[in-house]
Amino acid sequence: MRIFLVGNPNVGKSVVFNRLTGLNVVVSNYPGTTIEIVKGKARVGNSAAEVIDLPGTYTVEPTCRAEEVTVQVLAGRQDDDVVINVVDATNLERSLGLTLQLIKRRYPMVIALNLWDEAQHTGVQIDAALLEKILGVPCVPTVALTGQGIKALVERLSRPGVSPYEFEEARRWNEVGRILKEVQVITHRHHTLLERLGDASLRPFTGAVIALLVLGLSFETVRLVGEGLIRFALEPFFEAVWSPLMLRLSSLLGGSGFLHALLIGRLSEGAINYGESFGLLTTGLFVPFGAVLPYVFAFYLVLSVLEDSGYLPRLAVLADRLLHVVGLHGMGVIPMLLGLGCNVPGILSGRIMESKKECFICTTLVAIAVPCMAQTAMIVGLAGRYGATALAVIFGTLFLVWLALGIILRRAMIGESPELILDVPPYRIPYAVGLAKKVWTRLLSFVFEAVPFVFMGVLLVNLLYTLGVMGLIGRIFSPIVTGVFGLPSDAAGALVVGFLRKDVAVGMLAPLHLPFRQTVVACVVLAVYFPCVATFAVMARELGIRGMLKATAIMITTALVSGGLLNLALWALVEQTP
Amino acid sequence: MTNCVSLADVGQGQSGTVLVIQAGFGLTSRLDSMGIRPGVRLEKISGSPFHGPVTIRVGNVNLALGHGMAAKILVQIEAPPRGGPS
Hints:
heterodimer, A: alpha/beta, Rossmann fold, 2 domains, seven-stranded mixed sheet, 24 helices, 62% helix, elongated, B: alpha+beta, SH3 type barrels, 2 helices, 36% strand, globular
C-alpha cells in the first residue's frame, strides 16, 4: 500500500509526512519547500505502507513545473494506493478546488483538514462531520505541527472513501461555493497584530524598513552567536583540553615521522597552532568543529526562524525588482539565502524557478558568487585581522560579480524569465520543537556530509607537501596565480584543495601570512573559481553534463577576470597612493 | 459603477471585483486555480514602484503577482474607496 500526500503548496504536507513516518524532512512556511518526491515508511493498522510526499499543487491539470511532478506520480497510482488530501482549513475554498478534482478521479482518499487550530483562531468554523457526509470521504481535523489528529487520520486510512459525489467539471468552483455555504461559518473579526505586520512588510516603504531591520538583525545574530561560541566554548576547549592530549600523542609518536605529520602536523615552537599545523587530528578537527560549525549552527538557527515565520515570501516580493535585473524573479531569494548556508541545498532549491534559463542563472550565480557559511567563517577568520574593510571589499566584490554576471547571463541567454506569482502565507510563530529538529537535522547533515571532505582535504594537503608535489603545482600554476592574481606561487595549492573543501582551502592561506591585497584577492578567487566537489556533483545533476561544463567555463573566466581586476584595482588604489 | 481599471492601477487598500482576465489559457487557468477568476472580490494590499509586483488579498489568501499579470486583470472598484481594512 502506498499513501500519497496531495494538497496545495504550503498547507503542511511535509509536516504530516514527518508525523506519519517519524522522519525529519525540512519543512518551512513558504510554498515550494518540497521540490522533489520524498518517500518514507509508516504503519497503517497491521501493515506497512510507503508514504510519498509530493510537491504542492493547486490543480491536477499542471500549470507549472512543480505541479507536473505531482500529476505524473498520481498517474502511476495502483489499486490499493490511498491519497491523503491535505487541506488548508484556513483556506477551505481554494483547497476544495483540488479536492473536487481528486474526487472526480475516484481516488480512494482521506481528507486531513490541517491548520485546524489556526482556522479557529482566525474565526473559520468548519463542520467536518457534515463535509464528510457531503463528500463521502473521511474528513479529519489535524494540527500536524503538534501531532493533534494524526492518530485519527492513521486509523481512518485503513478505510478510505471513494467519493460518490457527482458534479459538472466546468462548474467546479460553483460547486465549491455551494459546499462552503453548508459547512463553513466565518466570524467577522479584527485584524491581528501579525496580520497588520504582514501587510506592512509587503508595502514598499515600510517593507524596505522592515527588511533592513530583519536582515541586519539576522546578520548580527549570526555573527554574535558564531563568534561567541568560538570564543567562549570551542577555542577554550581546543586550547585547554585537546591541545594537551595532542601534545602527549605527539611525544608518543616521537615528535616526527610520517604518522606524526599525518595526525599532528607541524608543531610551531613546540605548540599546536590549529590554523597552521595541518594534521588530521589538529587542523582537520579544528576547521570543521572549532571554526565552521559554530557559524553553521548560528546561520541555520536564524535561517530556520526566517523560514518558519513566513518572512521569506515577503522578502521575495520586495526583492522581485532587483532579481529581475539578473533574470530571476523574487523567489530567487530562496536559493541565494540557502546557498549562503551551503551551496548544495541552494542549487537544489533553484527548482522553484520555472524556466530552464532561470534554473541555469540561479545555479551559476549560487555556485560562483554565493560563498557558503563554511567558507565565510574561514574568510572572516583569515581576513578579519585586516578589519571590516577587508571583509567589505571581499563580500562587496562578490556582490558585484553576482550582479554583473547575472546581467550578462540574462541578456546572453535565450529563454524567458517569467513573472512572480506567489502565495504569501500568514506570519506564524515558529514552533520551537519543529525548529530545534530542523536545525539539528541540518547540523547532522553538515557533520556527516561535509566533515569527511574536510578530512580528505587535510589529508590531501599533507600528502601533497610530504610527496613534494605542492612545489610542482605551484610552478605549473604560477603564471596565473602570480601573474594574474599577484599571489605567491604557494597559494596554488589552495586552489587545488578548494575542489574538495573551500574552508580547508581558505585555511591553507593562513600559514602564508599574506598581506592585505593578496588576502582579499585570494579569498575572492577561492570563492569564485570552482565549486567544491559536492556542489559540482549537484550541478551536474541539475544542469546535465553540458550545462555543468558551461557553468564551469563561466566560473573559470569569472575568476580570472574578477581576481585580475580586483588585484589591479587594489594595487592602484591602495599601494600607489601614499 | 463604471469604475473599471487594471489591478496594477488599483490604489493601495482599495477593494474591487474581478471583471475579466485578459490573458491566454495558461495564465487564466493558473490564476483560476489560485483563486482569481471573474466575480471574485479582492483587496489590494500593495503595489511597488518601477513596475514591481502587486500584492492582493482574496478571501483568506495573500497573493503576489508580477506587474504584467496584474495589468491583465480588470477590476471594478468599489466606490468610495475605504480608508483601511475593517
